[in-house]
From TrEMBL:
Organism listed in the record: Clostridium beijerinckii (Clostridium MP)
Keywords: Aminotransferase, Decarboxylase, Lyase, Pyridoxal phosphate, Transferase
Positions of the Orn/Lys/Arg decarboxylases family 1 pyridoxal-P attachment site domain: 4-307
Needed co-factor(s): pyridoxal 5'-phosphate
Transferase among keywords: yes
Signal peptide bounds: none
Top-level taxon of the source organism: Bacteria
InterPro entries tied to this protein: Orn/Lys/Arg_deCO2ase_major_dom (IPR000310), Orn_Lys_Arg_decarboxylase-I (IPR052357), Prn/Lys/Arg_de-COase_C (IPR008286), Prn/Lys/Arg_de-COase_C_sf (IPR036633), PyrdxlP-dep_Trfase (IPR015424), PyrdxlP-dep_Trfase_major (IPR015421)
Family: Belongs to the Orn/Lys/Arg decarboxylase class-I family.
Protein known as: Aminotransferase class I/II-fold pyridoxal phosphate-dependent enzyme
Amino acid sequence: MKLPLLEGLLKYNDEENLLLSMPGNKGGIGFTRDEIGLEFVNRMGFLDITEVDPLDNLHYPEGIIKEAQELLAKTYKAKKAYFLVNGSSSGNLAAMFSAFDEGDEVLVERNCHKSIYNGLIMRKLKVKYIEPIIDDELGLFLPPNKENIYKALENCSKPKGIIITYPNYFGITYDIEEIICNLKGIGLKVIIDCAHGAHFGINKRLPKSLASLGDYVVLSAHKTLPALTQGAYLLVNEENDIIDFYIKSFTTTSPSYLIMASLDYARYYLDTYGKDDYDKLINESEKWKKKINKLGKVYILSESDLDKHNDRIEGYKIDPSRYIVILPKGYNGHKFLDYLRDNKIQAEMSFSRGVVLILSPFNTEEDFKIIYETILNLDMRNMSREIEIKYSRNIPIKKFEPYETFKLKSRWCEIEKCEGLVAKESIIPYPPGIPLVCPGEIISKDVIAIVRDYIINKKSIIGVNNNKILILDIN
Ligand SMILES: Cc1ncc(COP(=O)(O)O)c(C=O)c1O
């Protein structure tokens, strides 16, 4: 008898890795903060119950789910709040369907999540991309700044709304409060994908929360808070009843009570312990950051480093509950992730020059010591890069809207022969899960070089199969 998945999961758990990745509950540790959380995690297997009286119904909440969602709205100071059991992905889709109609023109960040690209196709939206900002020196993507947002807006003929990611996957934010207010002032609908920022605002040392500012704000509680994977929140600040229909449409009719209960716990955690726990975490993370940086092997980024490299742009913040660890020039972030993994540290993601570690209030002094000692023992000679590669700054030329490509004929083509052809599907390196090319765009030489980098480094890249890319067969 074989049980490959369960056995694999148990084996991973037996390794007792230090989880500096999602989920925010850190393998259940986050629920052990107090008695009620401990009871939840200990009785988890017995609490997988369905909609029986008096447990309420997520699709028509009138009892305990309604009460829990009302408390959630209060915590985030939003008009209305919903539990999502299918991640922020379902929240992004529901928000896009509710805010926009077929054919609407929408401003979208180039670096947005796949679920938003899916929404563009499903809702048949016309897309205007906001140019990404790439820090070549560090190999990082930064959130678009004011100039890029307004530049994209000028290229629109009749914009209906904007979808903004806050923060990006690195935990970097740009101060967009005023921009959002201006855009709302000229009638644009604003969706904020705040998947990585469910903890924002709970402590003044964290980036600002935009929870009450966007018309729709999506938060992946499971990424940074003590909630189970898939658990997320959708906050709605505009009067719009059709959102209920779309949330229901993108949600199973058998929502997990475990996920919903964990979402209730995550909100309670923020209310009860959030401010103080994040204070302690930030103190620790700052203290160990200095120690690690003094080792002179890797470098954990600070905001001032971003301003230094991007002298024109100010206003970036880095979530202090994340470490963006940069290797010296010429060294390989993907190899560093493997090194950490070999030493039982699970990083969230790697990129060409480094890794991202998601810290949490559940990290102990001992955890920081482990990170420090692992870096102390790092032999830089094993981290060298095979090739030096830069990300492409330019947005590829769009030949078709993403939804227009959906039903067009396609064929697989060798990567090296794709220059000048039109992509049928997104090409998305994981991590960070940001498309290099979107459906309907022309594949450039730069894109081919980046794809090669991922393949050589044996990192997964969606949209590439046996060194081939799916292109439109339109000639
Ligand atoms: C920016 C962003 N938005 C949305 C999502 C989707 O979130 P979920 O996994 O909760 O569906 C992710 C997931 O990584 C993300 O990084």
